[in-house]
Each structure stands twice: as structure tokens, then as C-alpha cells.
């Protein structure tokens, strides 16, 4: 990276992943004329043995950051603890999502088995295990529900093993990566989001965009754009019984599912239009390249 900066001589370097932030900030300590932007995507680090070491390095090197971007207001607010050094530092929420209505859901009638749908990378913090346990609880109550999950990741085999152990493997479909997955998802009845930590949570926004009634935990950006019983149904983190109850309550109420789904689609179209994104990016671009580097 040091060699690349010497060759390219950029005005601005934007650092995204935590590892990139640590390396990039360290290198930029020796390139004070380059403006450093840290792009935050999640409010907290995953719970791993190295988490405290990462936190120490990020906080120590934050003195080199001139500007902080975040994918949503909640991420921006909660990551401020990673910047303890008192200094002038600009902040911005950068839109990563633009709503489209090309595949909006219009039929909310449920016929046959309940079609649940999820999406995301198969990692532990997404808590797909909770949805699998809820599927087993619904089966024990005589509720015929099937769940399709779009995505890939290291937890895939563990998810299948859990479904086998709970005797619901025949009701679970891991559909793999599908570009614009929400087009197929719009044919399902209810979207589930079970994460214990998120940034903006793109898949939730996409599900809401197409009018899927959503049952979700309230994490990350969902604090900013979801409201219980208005455009989503909120459930506690990690509680399969609460998730199963919420599904069972929502299924027989077509009017409520329609109201929640259409309200979600309308809100996404209003908050995340192409025009809003263009305006925000123009403002950030103008400010970023008009500004001289802030010396720390």
C-alpha cells in the first residue's frame, strides 16, 4: 500500500474493512498530505479473541482519520467511540442503496405452505440458527412452513446439520447466491431477518423495497428505517419462540401483511430514491475534493 500511494499520489484514500483501516491508517501516518476517510459499515466488531486488540489499534490510529463515512445514522453514532482523539473531523452518511419498484409484491394471499424467505452471508452473527429453530417450533405446532435462504458462506454446513437435527431439512432450502434475489423473494409470503448485529442491512431494505412483510430484530440501520407494526414486526434477538409466535400471528392476517408490506415499499421509495442518492453523493464529492487535508 505504501508503494501504491507513492506511485498514484492520491488526494484521498477511503478505507473500508477494519483490517484495511488498520493498515491504511498506519501507512498514511507517513503521508500527511493525503486525506484519510474511514468508511464504517457495522456498529461493533464480531466477538472473536482478537476483538480487543483490533479495538485498541483502531482507536489508537484514529488520530490519522480526517473524515468518517457510515452506511446509516446508527452506524455513524455507534462507531464514534472508535475515535477518542479530540480533533476536527467531518462526518457523512453515504447511501449504499437505491430503491427500485420493478418487482413490487401485489398478492398477499397465502395458499399452501407458508413461504418464508431470508438472505445474507452465512455467518454466525446473522443467526440463521434462530430461524431454523423457529421452523422446527412451527412444525411441532402443526404449521406447514418452508424457508428459502439466499446466500453463501462458511456456516452453510452447520445450518444444514442443524436443520437435519431438528427434522426440518425438508423444509429448508439454501438457494445460494442469486443476483437481485429480491425478484424471486417477492413471490414469498414473509421475510425474516434474525441478525444480532448489522450495519445498514441491505437485504432488509431490499425486502421492504419489494413490499415483503418483514419480521426482524432491531439492529443497525433497522433502527433508522423500520417501525414496529408500521412497516415491520420487531422481535427480540436470539429468541426462536418469539419468532415462531410472530410468524404464526402474521400468517392468518392478510390485511396486516398487506399494510406492513405496502408501507415498507412506500417508505423505501421515499427515503432511498435515485435523486436523493445523487444529491448526497454530489454534496460529499464537492466537499471532499474542495477541502484541504485536515492536519491532525
Mind sketching the topology for me?
Elements: H1 2-8, E1 12-15, H2 18-28, E2 35-40, H3 51-61, E3 67-70, H4 73-78, E4 90-93, E5 114-119, H5 128-140, E6 145-150, H6 156-165, E7 172-176, H7 182-185, E8 190-193, H8 202-209, E9 214-216, H9 222-225, E10 233-234, H10 240-250, H11 254-271, H12 274-290
Parallel strand pairs: 1-2, 2-3, 3-4, 5-6, 5-8, 6-7, 8-9, 9-10
Provide structural commentary.
This protein is α/β, with parallel strands linked by helices and 296 residues long. The protein has 12 helices and 10 strands. It has 2 domains: 2-95 and 274-290, 3-Layer(aba) Sandwich (Rossmann fold), CATH 3.40.50; 114-271, Glycogen Phosphorylase B (Rossmann fold, 3-Layer(aba) Sandwich), CATH 3.40.50.2000. The strands form 2 sheets. It has a 6-stranded parallel β-sheet with strand order 7-6-5-8-9-10, with helices on both faces. Strands 1-2-3-4 form a 4-stranded parallel β-sheet, sandwiched between helices. Helix 9 (222-225) links the parallel strand 9 (214-216) and strand 10 (233-234). Helix 2 (18-28) packs parallel to helix 3, helix 5 packs across helix 10 and helix 8 (202-209) packs across helix 11 (254-271). The mean pLDDT is 92. This is Glycosyltransferase. Its EC number is 2.4.-.-.
